[in-house]
Amino acid sequence: MIKVGVIGAAGKMGKEVVKTVIQEPDMQLVLAVDINNSGDDIGKIVTGENCGVLIESDIKTGLQAAKPDVVIDFTQPAGIFEHVCLYLENRVKSVIGTTGLNDEQIDRIKQLSEKNQTACLIAPNFSTGAVLLMMFAKQAAKYFKNAEIIELHHNQKKDAPSGTAIKTAKLMAQANNDFTFGNCSETELLQGARGANSEANIHIHSVRLPGYIASQEVIFGSDGQLFKIKHDTMSRSCYMDGVMLAVRHVYNKNDFIYGLDNIM
After folding, report:
1. C-alpha to C-alpha distance for 135 and 218, rounded to whole angstroms
2. What CATH topology corresponds to 128-233?
3. Spatial distance between the Cα atoms of 81 and 159, rounded to a whole number of angstroms
């Protein structure tokens, strides 16, 4: 039985994770941490029925008391680096869904994971469809010299571009070092009009509007044709298969993984 802790348990993604963990036959929810609803039964909040796990407000206290095998963290970007370091220093395996980590922080996490021989899986996106989009974009990048990315999220997402868009650009850049082939010299009349210039000069355009959960489109262009790959998230439940796959992986391994595509 895998003992699981959920950090950010009373948030939108946290509630979905809690509901899924409770239903998994090989998992046991032993810890729920959130800055809100401290002392309340997380089961009552999520399903309407008590599950016996009361919400803790402090992560370190919760880890010491519940001793989870794996923690799942979907909290805010501002504190996620410190959270991951805390898990690894306490030799608690972790699945991280919060984006906003920079390359230097990811490298430091990898080093700490290897030093403590404690598994950590960080994924910009846990939707299997979104991961397939990234894999297909990497393949298509071999055959096109021009491409741009449009990512659309709800207006409560704090980081931009999305981690999924950044990861997609990095994968595409493995096939081509410049996706602006033949473009004319440009002048932005309004700063940022052409989006962020990322890996291999791939322009990423971020949209934030109520109504969206998460969507991404990669557009490839060449003379006489356009090729588009798109993924739309309609419900947060689509992430759960990927999260459970990640939990089972880290439970049985002691490696560091960045990207769900590496275990699919």
Report:
1. 12
2. Dihydrodipicolinate Reductase; domain 2 (3.30.360)
3. 14
- List pLDDT tens digits, range 92-108: 999 999 888 899 999 99
The ranges of the chain annotated as CATH 3.40.50.720 are 2-122+237-262
Mean pLDDT confidence for 222-230: 98
Whether omega before 68 lies within 30 degrees of 0, making that bond cis, reads no
- Candidate list 153, 167, 231, 249, residue with the active-site label: 153
Our answer to whether residue 157 is catalytic in this structure is: yes
Q: Which CATH architecture has domain 2-122+237-262?
A: 3-Layer(aba) Sandwich (3.40)
Q: At a CB cut-off of 8 Å and minimum separation 6, what does 188 contact?
A: 194
- Residue pair 245/263 in contact (Cβ under 8 Å)? The answer is yes
Instruction: Indicate which residue of 3, 145, 157, 203 is catalytic.
Output: 157
Active site residue 249: no
Domain with CATH 3.30.360.10 in the chain: 128-233
pLDDT at 51 over 90: yes
